[in-house]
Specification:
Length: 260
């Protein structure tokens, strides 16, 4: 039915325009899907429409309506690919409401039922941020084992978080190896100056100050005017301050011993 296809297509186009003017287009898209769904309740496009209406209600913070439609999709269209999306969305709602245990169980459902789906990858990325915020760094970094390497390699945020977690876990050798690899593979990446400075930080955290200074100076030279240069200058100052404090402390002790 061309009229059916046109109605759902129009609603879909309105949905894609939400980001341009959320306040207006959320309601326009919702009205479009409601109209299409009422006109063609048996359409094969109903699962997608119901899921998207739920997402709109979620963005409007109308949680009860959103939950109802997510659960309706799962219940009435169990074979739909949108069931995985609905399950993950329900999990995020539960966690946002403070019902973490139930939310995490829902996420495990996604991993169990849809292990190869894009939604499972999204859920892993969500858990990385969730556990990082909870300072459960081992759990956060373990999620990377189940994310395709291509996804990580194409996401600067995931690479940054992975390196940051290694540093937080004091796995300095692994952090340096990973960061050196990123700088060598992507020397012109906007984040390369930060990665370079972090290599220096990893040396400094182990007390290997000369190696840290060498990396910091290389960062300054290689990436002038960058965030990495700022971090490198800060690292050099920290090392200098530490040495000055240590030298002053030793001089005080020497003078005190002479008085004795």
């Amino acid at each position: 039915d061309s009229a059916e296809a046109a109605l759902f297509l129009l609603a879909g186009c309105q949905y894609q325009l939400i980001d341009e003017n959320p306040e207006l287009n959320l309601q326009v898209a919702l009205n479009g899907y409601l109209s299409a769904s009422r006109s063609y309740p048996k359409s094969l496009l109903i699962p997608k429409a119901t899921y998207r209406m739920a997402e709109i209600y979620l963005q409007q913070k109308m949680y009860k309506r959103a939950i109802y439609l997510f659960e309706k999709t799962i219940r009435e269209h169990p074979e739909s690919p949108y069931v995985a999306h609905c399950t993950f969305s329900l999990a995020k709602i539960l966690i946002e409401k403070g019902e973490d245990a139930q939310g995490l169980r829902k996420i495990r459902e996604v991993f169990t039922e849809y292990p190869e789906s894009n939604v499972a990858v999204e859920a892993r990325i969500f858990l990385i941020a969730y556990y990082d915020e909870k300072e459960q760094y081992d759990r956060a970094i373990s999620q990377y084992d189940s994310i395709p390497e291509k996804v990580v390699s194409e996401s600067p945020d995931l690479k940054n978080t992975y390196a940051d977690l290694l540093l937080k876990l004091k796995r300095y050798d692994e952090a340096r190896d990973f960061l050196f690899k990123q700088v060598n593979l992507y020397p012109d990446d906007p984040f390369a100056p930060r990665w370079m400075a972090w290599i220096g930080d990893a040396y400094y955290a182990e007390g290997r100050e000369e190696e840290a200074k060498k990396i910091y100076y290389q960062t300054k030279s290689r990436y002038p005017g960058s965030e990495g240069e700022v971090l490198a200058r800060s690292g050099i100052l920290d090392i200098s301050s530490t040495k000055n404090v240590k030298g002053n402390y030793e001089r005080v002790l020497k003078g005190f011993n002479q008085l004795l």
